[in-house]
Amino acid sequence: MKSRCSRRLREDEVEFLTEQPIDVAALMAAVQAPARGGIAVFVGAVRNHQAGRDVLRLHYSAYRPMAEAECARIMTEAEAKWDVAVAVAHRVGRLEVGDTAVAVVAASAHREEAFAACRYLIEQIKRRVPIWKQEFYADGSVSWVDPSTGAEHTEAGPRLQHA
Amino acid sequence: MVTAVASEISVRVLLFASYAEGLGFDSIDLSLASPATVGAVLERLRALPGGDRLPQRPLCALNLAHVGPEATLATGDEVAVLPPLAGG
Description:
By secondary structure, chain A is an alpha+beta fold. Helix content of chain A is 33%, strand content 33%. Chain A is built from four helices and nine strands; from the N terminus they run αβαβββαβββαββ. In chain A, the strands form two sheets. In chain A, strands 3, 4, 6, 8 and 9 form a five-stranded antiparallel beta sheet that branches. Chain A has a four-stranded mixed beta sheet with strand order 1-5-7-2, sandwiched between helices. In chain A, α3 runs antiparallel to α4 (111-128). The termini of chain A are far apart. By secondary structure, chain B is of the alpha+beta class. Helix content of chain B is 18%, strand content 31%. Chain B is globular, with a radius of gyration of 14 Å. The interface between A and B is medium-sized, with 37 and 22 residues.
């Protein structure tokens, strides 16, 4: 019962990746239930600066089939670790400053599990899901963002490595 | 006449984002001597124009899951070489 909403979302209703603006309220509605009194939401929005440069807009691209598969694995992991229902969405294509790029929702009976699952989802998405970001700057230049160079602020820690 | 032919496998290799730009293509079919690994795919890519831009240990995926360079390949596999991930 606990994961019914997210399973339905994953398989039948929405994909993780979307070209359309992300509807955070719809994601919340998908996981809300009378028994789930704690709902944690993380929203990542497009920032107007990066390493001291003015960012005008972004373009996200993805290895779509793997992104969907990896996201489904991450959601399953979260549901196994905590008693939560989860919903996630990541935008691809052209985004403007302030647009929602990613949204993660975790609903549980209490806030501890909701916060923990929400944090897990966003960190694992940043670490494991094959999505790339191209930044377009005010000076006309364009570059691919490499979080490992330190130019990108991230709380995700070290990126995935295979030694 | 029967000739001994070393067995080969064929795989599809996908490149993305900066790697696709660096090598000038986003998909290539490769034939490799069996047994072959993801590492062998990387060596073949490095020999191509622009292949020197690949890092020593890029992220790789095999059939939609992360793997290391030691992962072994079979005909029909899809190998992806992934630039640093930047979602979120």
